[in-house]
């Protein structure tokens, strides 16, 4: 099971630039809004693109999706771990919690 990270811990890591944040929703969801600095990577693309998007298998990585009911972040985290990434955590509460707390989001629209 993937370790979890709290909103406050994630915010501190993003502010310190010590984490790579992975948006497991991708597509138009990512384009509309995502956590600061997040890179899109959905489960279907992990095997083909992880090495390019996440070249350092020892780097701190946090996956997220929309909310605790969304399975995407856990699935991407599990697959990254299976591929040899050693510091993968999941922000279970997701972008809905982040936005609900009034924290900044980015957009490509």
UniProtKB/TrEMBL annotation:
<protein>
    <recommendedName>
        <fullName>Rhodanese domain-containing protein</fullName>
    </recommendedName>
</protein>
<dbReference type="InterPro" id="IPR036873">
    <property type="entry name" value="Rhodanese-like_dom_sf"/>
</dbReference>
<dbReference type="Pfam" id="PF00581">
    <property type="entry name" value="Rhodanese"/>
</dbReference>
<dbReference type="InterPro" id="IPR001763">
    <property type="entry name" value="Rhodanese-like_dom"/>
</dbReference>
<feature type="domain" description="Rhodanese">
    <location>
        <begin position="15"/>
        <end position="107"/>
    </location>
</feature>
